[in-house]
């Protein structure tokens, strides 16, 4: 991880100099300014001007997990550039460095352009391929080339996405012409809406050969092992249950064996009504495609729920987003014919050999605890969402779950802790004999029909939980970084 550069100590030093009152001040003998005083003042001003970077132009962002995601539409000066000739730079006290980035392409219809097209049923269908209609095998929109690009070239289009990490940004740099010799330069400023901290990066396109591409990859995807790995965590996605994650490890140490999924749906077919319980083994589908960038990985699943006989829900598209320090994992609430009401539990087994304690933060600011560590862990801030922490000796996972606005008035999402495996009274689903914790999502009558996809945010750290981690997880979704884009003067000719 790149070290952050801060100018706070410089300003503090000079502020002390400015605030310090001189001793033995004598009244002047006459009007004017003493030559010694003038000389000292000039030296002081020269020293200020010689500082490499004042606070106003210094990297001060402290949100190391956040990505910077900007659409091509906001980067108009570089539209049409060859993607292979684009680089992103940052400066630390005037020293230039290339930073990892990726361009996630979309076609003219807004569909992702996949690095790896799967487009086939997952192994869930191996025993019963009849569950996979032919039209599910390869959809017309699934491809690995942007139809907006000329043959043999990949171009940066208005609907493509530039992605890099906020922690890789640096100071603002003035000497653009001398230090960024590319043909087109765009300055990107990221601002933390919480505290006003800022950072800068420079997107540069070249007509000739650009500097060498940085070989650093934060993200790795191993398709044969179905494993995704970052510098701090890795996990496998199931080869039999496409809705599950298996074997989450932090720094190589086992943390969560599996995130289980349980639920029940109320269905109605004419005058016939029934309630059906299900788990992850009843959710079938396939992986449509994967984007394997150095900064993030996107995986799209197409899923449906098999209920009974030939009755199943329509296909639902669920997209997973994985970053070096966190993940956004989808959870589907299927309110589509013949389903009239649904409850879904997203659960983690509380194995005390790995998870030392579990904390659940409530809307009223209270914290429910489970485990063998019962120290005071009252949250720093009372958040408008509930949150869960799985704390281990080798790291922690902080998770939040939010409802889409389209169903916020007709559904409820809240954390649950079942210490005796007796389920939750509100939804009446058995959670087994072992203690579990997670989120329960329940729709109410009148919930709009549709495939409602919720995203859970999982912030992963190599350190045990500390107060404020829940705020960092909350800010990822609710207080995202804002951006300012400008083209330096040298490119305005």
Please provide a written account of the structure.
By secondary structure, this protein is mainly beta. It has two domains: 67-217, no CATH class; 225-462, Beta-galactosidase, Chain A, domain 5. Helix content is 9%, strand content 39%. The chain has four helices and 28 strands. Strands 5, 15, 16, 17, 18, 19, 21, 22, 23, 24 and 27 form an eleven-stranded antiparallel sheet that branches. Strands 9, 10, 11, 12, 13, 14, 20, 25 and 26 form a nine-stranded antiparallel sheet that branches. Strand 2 (86-92) and strand 3 form a beta hairpin. The protein starts with 7 loop residues before the first helix and ends in a 7-residue tail after the last strand.
Relevant terms:
493 residues, mainly beta, Beta-galactosidase, Chain A, domain 5, eleven-stranded antiparallel sheet, nine-stranded antiparallel sheet, 28 strands, disordered N terminus
- Give the distance, in angstroms, between the N- and C-terminal Cα atoms: 37 Å
Number of strands: 28
The percent range for strand residues is 35-45%
Average of the residue pLDDT scores: 81
Total domain count:
2
Shape category: globular
Write the layout of secondary structure elements.
Layout: H1 8-19, H2 35-50, E1 67-71, E2 86-92, E3 95-98, E4 102-104, E5 116-117, E6 161-165, H3 176-179, E7 184-191, E8 198-205, E9 220-222, E10 227-229, E11 233-237, E12 245-250, E13 253-269, E14 272-279, E15 283-292, E16 297-308, E17 311-312, E18 316-322, E19 326-335, E20 339-349, E21 355-361, E22 367-371, E23 387-392, E24 396-402, E25 411-418, E26 436-443, E27 450-461, H4 469-478, E28 482-486
Antiparallel strand pairs: 1-6, 2-3, 2-8, 4-6, 5-15, 7-8, 7-28, 9-10, 10-11, 11-12, 12-13, 13-14, 13-20, 15-16, 16-17, 16-18, 18-19, 19-27, 20-26, 21-22, 21-23, 23-24, 24-27, 25-26
């Amino acid at each position: 991880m790149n070290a952050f550069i801060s100018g706070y100590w410089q300003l503090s030093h000079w502020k002390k100099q400015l605030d310090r009152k001189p001793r033995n001040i004598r009244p002047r003998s006459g009007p004017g300014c003493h030559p010694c005083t003038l000389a000292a003042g000039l030296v002081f001003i020269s020293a200020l001007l010689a500082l490499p970077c004042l606070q106003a132009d210094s990297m001060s962002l402290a949100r190391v997990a956040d990505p910077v995601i900007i659409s091509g539409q906001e980067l108009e000066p570089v539209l049409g550039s060859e993607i292979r000739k684009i680089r992103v730079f940052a400066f630390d006290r005037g020293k230039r460095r290339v930073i990892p980035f990726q361009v996630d392409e979309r076609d003219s219809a807004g569909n992702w352009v996949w690095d790896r097209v799967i487009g086939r049923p997952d192994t869930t269908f191996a025993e019963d391929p009849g569950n996979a209609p032919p039209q599910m095998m390869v959809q017309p929109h699934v491809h690995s080339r942007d139809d907006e690009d000329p043959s043999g070239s990949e171009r940066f289009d208005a609907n493509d996405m530039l992605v890099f990490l906020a922690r890789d940004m640096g100071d603002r740099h003035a000497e653009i012409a001398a230090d960024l010799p590319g043909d087109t330069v765009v300055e990107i400023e990221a601002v933390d809406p919480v505290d006003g901290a800022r950072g800068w990066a420079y997107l540069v396109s070249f007509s000739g050969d650009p500097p060498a591409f940085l070989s650093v990859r934060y993200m790795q995807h191993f398709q044969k092992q179905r494993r995704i790995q970052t510098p701090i965590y890795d996990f496998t996605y199931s080869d039999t249950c496409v809705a599950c994650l298996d074997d989450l490890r932090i720094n190589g140490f086992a943390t969560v064996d599996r995130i289980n999924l349980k639920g029940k749906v109320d269905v109605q077919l004419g005058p016939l009504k029934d309630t059906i319980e299900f788990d992850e083994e009843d959710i079938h589908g396939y992986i449509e495609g994967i984007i394997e960038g150095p900064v993030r990985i996107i995986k799209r699943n197409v899923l449906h729920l098999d209920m009974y006989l030939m009755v199943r829900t329509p296909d639902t598209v669920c997209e997973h987003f994985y970053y070096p320090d966190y993940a956004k994992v989808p959870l589907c609430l299927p309110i589509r014919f013949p389903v009239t009401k649904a409850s879904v539990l997203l659960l983690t087994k509380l194995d005390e050999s790995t998870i030392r304690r579990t904390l659940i933060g409530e809307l009223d600011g209270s914290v429910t605890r489970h485990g063998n560590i019962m120290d005071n862990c009252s949250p720093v801030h009372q958040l408008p969402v509930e949150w869960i922490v799985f704390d281990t000796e080798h790291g922690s996972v902080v998770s939040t779950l939010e409802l889409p606005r389209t169903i916020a008035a007709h559904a409820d999402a809240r954390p649950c802790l079942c210490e005796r495996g007796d389920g939750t009274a509100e939804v009446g689903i058995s959670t087994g004999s072992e203690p579990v914790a997670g989120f329960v999502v329940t729709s109410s009558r009148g919930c709009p029909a549709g495939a409602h996809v919720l995203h859970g945010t999982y912030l992963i750290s190599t350190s045990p939980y500390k107060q404020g981690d829940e705020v960092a997880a909350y800010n990822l979704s609710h207080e995202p970084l804002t951006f300012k884009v400008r083209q330096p003067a040298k490119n305005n000719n």
